[in-house]
């Protein structure tokens, strides 16, 4: 009777041991599966976020900043040459548009001018017949255009006309 009891105890201990090992293996498999699937979906999500950020940056056009302007009237030709010194837009491949105003707060612009390349001296230049009065202040704002989209207009810069 005692021998039979001891055999049953050993078998019971072995079965309990196998159940514990089986439970640990099952938990390990679940944890590994959950970690692996989360890693894949996280990687996919990260690559989608990176693609979205790149598309946003490519679609965004940064505003150029005017640092100085010079309005020189050529009375014999009847036009003025405007030199606009600026920090270019950090967006590559843009065209610069300049708006010329007779006053800082008045309505529509007198004229709009286009420029593409900043020369070695660091300015873009355009000619206009709208600047005629020596000593008058004129106001210039700039924005960048690419693929029919434009940056916000930069701050308005004052330019005093002179001969």
CATH architecture tag of the largest domain: Sandwich
CATH level-3 fold name of the largest domain: Immunoglobulin-like
Quick one: CATH superfamily of the largest domain?
Immunoglobulins
- Termini separation comes to 125 Å
Describe the structure.
The chain is an alpha+beta fold and 163 residues long. It has two domains: 1-59; 65-162, Immunoglobulins (Immunoglobulin-like, Sandwich). It is 36% helix and 34% strand. It contains one helix and eight strands; from the N terminus they run H-E-E-E-E-E-E-E-E. The protein has one helix at residues 2-59, and strands spanning 65-74, 79-87, 95-101, 111-115, 123-128, 137-146, 149-150, 157-162. Strands 1, 2, 3, 4, 5, 6, 7 and 8 form an eight-stranded mixed sheet that branches. Strand 6 and strand 7 form a beta hairpin. 17% of the residues are buried.
SSE order and pairing:
Blueprint: H1 2-59, E1 65-74, E2 79-87, E3 95-101, E4 111-115, E5 123-128, E6 137-146, E7 149-150, E8 157-162
Parallel strand pairs: 1-8
Antiparallel strand pairs: 1-2, 2-5, 3-4, 3-6, 6-7, 6-8
List keywords for this structure.
163 residues; alpha+beta; Immunoglobulin-like; 2 domains; eight-stranded mixed sheet; 8 strands; 34% strand
Task: Give me a quick take on this structure.
The protein is an alpha+beta fold and 163 residues long. It has one helix spanning 2-59, and strands at residues 65-74, 79-87, 95-101, 111-115, 123-128, 137-146, 149-150, 157-162.
């Amino acid at each position: 009777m005692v021998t039979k009891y001891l055999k049953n105890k050993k078998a019971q201990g072995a079965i309990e041991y196998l159940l514990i090992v089986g439970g640990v293996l099952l938990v390990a498999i679940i944890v590994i599966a959950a970690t692996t699937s989360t890693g894949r979906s996280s990687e996919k999500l990260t690559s989608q976020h990176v693609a979205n950020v790149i598309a946003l940056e490519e679609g965004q056009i940064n505003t150029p900043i005017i640092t100085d302007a010079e309005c020189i009237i050529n009375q014999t030709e009847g036009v003025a040459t405007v030199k606009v010194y600026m920090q270019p837009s950090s967006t590559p491949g843009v065209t610069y548009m300049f708006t010329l105003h007779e006053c800082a707060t008045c309505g529509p612009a007198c004229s709009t001018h286009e420029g593409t390349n900043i020369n070695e001296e660091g300015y873009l230049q355009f000619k206009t017949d709208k600047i005629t009065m020596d000593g008058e202040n004129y106001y210039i704002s700039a924005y960048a255009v690419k693929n029919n989209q434009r940056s916000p207009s930069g701050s308005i810069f004052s330019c005093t006309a002179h001969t």
